[in-house]
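INFO batch 0412 | record 1 of 1 | parsing
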Amino acid sequence: MPVSEPDRGGRPRASLFSAMRKSDDAPREGRARGADGPRRGGALGNRWVMWLVFAALLALILQFGKGLGGRAETIPFSQFRERLRSGDILTVVVEDTEYSGKYREGRPFPFSEYRTTGPRLEENPELLEEIDSKGVVLEFRKPSRWGEMLIWYLPLIVLLAFVWYVFLRQFRSTGGPGGVLSFGKSRATLVTKEKTRKSFADVAGIEEAKEEVEEIISFLKNPRRFLRMGARIPKGVLLIGAPGTGKTLLAKAIAGEADVPFYSISGSDFVEMFVGVGASRVRDLFQQAKENSPCIIFLDEIDAVGRRRGTGLGGGHDEREQTLNAILVEMDGFESDEKVIVMAATNRPDVLDPALLRPGRFDRRIVIDLPDVRGREAILRVHGRRVRLADDVDFSRLAKATPSFSGADLENMINEAALLAVMNNRDQVTMEHMETARDKVIWGKAKRSRVLDEEERRVTAYHEAGHALLAHILPEVDKLHKVTIIPHGMFLGATMHLPKKDEYNKTRRKLMGELAMLYAGRVSEEMFCNDISTGAKNDIEQATELARRMVCDWGMSDKLGPINYAAEEEHLFLGHEIARQRQHSEGTSVEIDAEVRRIIEEALGRARKILEEHREDVRHIAEALLQYEALSAEDVDLLLKGEPLTRQPSERRARAEPARA
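INFO prediction complete | emitting tokens
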């Protein structure tokens, strides 16, 4: 397949809008401990801070309002005596060492009142005589110690409370729930049936896994039924599967089906930069679970904390290993609780610590494989309930046309088909939209705006014609489904094959046919274009890897025999060995390379021989590709029989092209 630059398109806008709508409609999930408490406590705390700030403002007004008011001025005590002798003062209010009062009317002062500080009146009899001689109204006030303390110390208290409320609350929000003051608290979320809105009716394609999980739910609902038979509830259930196979979806369905508390947390939520925090969170999580037992704990992506200890370049006392030790002790220690079931999900079981996988901790392992054809059909029907489907949508045909698709891929395909129907201004999703969405998921969006000159289109057409012919002729390979020279994603052209059934083993005969089919594109370019291009890069990579695995992994070489020569794959920060050790000699490596070359040359010779015998057929397919840009298996059959295609080229180009707003 000719390779072009990768597609850099963004996420469809409708997907973002759907995610926003789901976020608004879904109920907010509280934390496992006191889900409603923080809301009421937060409201009361805000009200308490509001009243405290109001009291502080009142104290500031009482303290500084007299000095900052518009009618009173602060003057020296000597100036007060002068104005008293001149008869400008009308009243004097004495409060310990403070003097205040009013001026007489008509005096040329900018303020009508005054304030000053001087000696006590009982210690200054001359001042008292002056006040009496001038006819000034004298008034005494007794100072309040509590009022004075309130005026002077309340602002300081309010300031400290404000610092606590603002800064410590900010630290708490930065560190997540719990923040600085509760680093060791668990971040698990309590999931209920109302919050998840998932059930076993929403899970399809993994019937065996559902049956094994249903036993646990039945045990939790009616434990006496199992205890009478002497059955013991599994302490741990490990869900193993490739990404997108439905591990987390199954956990959500369990939360929806179970009538017991279901605590959900990710493995990365345990890991922090401070050593010991993860272990503390593990202990807090299991403490909550024990208080609400029987219950289920779900650890998503457990490989984030459950990796093998004592390997790689790191030490043995880091945060991750302490967290793992805490999980091991809680699951099967002296104080373990049999009423707490731990479920975990991972797509890397090979990196988990052996102590975590032994019986007594994870007693049951549930492998969730890619769905088979019946499972894919069931998954399509589940996700198809969300969209408006036309009558021509055939889920059985789509299931056969989507081999190696995971549940997430199938859901994405239906969503892409719905988006395409909206862009085409259609009221329903048709089979044509489904097939176009499938091609988009496999290859990427069709790049009809990319302009190729005639020479590039001709090379691409003959390249894909070579693939298509061998896929049609060779009986041992998967049959041709579609061939196109419309650029998709990274490819300038593509040929799609569909298996007749789900395959779990491949024979050497079929692998040799696939090698010949992979090299047919390069051979076709050489035969009909008198040159070769870089378009065969991906084909050569796949063929070389396949031939090497035939020799080293599967023992399909008569010369080297059924011996495994593959190098052990170990990651630098995970495996036991930093340097990769080879298990065979240099001479054996030379023989392996020679066998790989022999197999590839045999496949090349077979492809060249078949194309030479069917030169006219290759030319017919290539010319039809240049005219129609995309051909189905039925179109190729008509061409090889010598029958013309009845459709017009313009109709071919407009079939999958979305309408533009």
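INFO post-check: The CA atoms of residues 301 and 331 lie 17 Å apart.
INFO record closed
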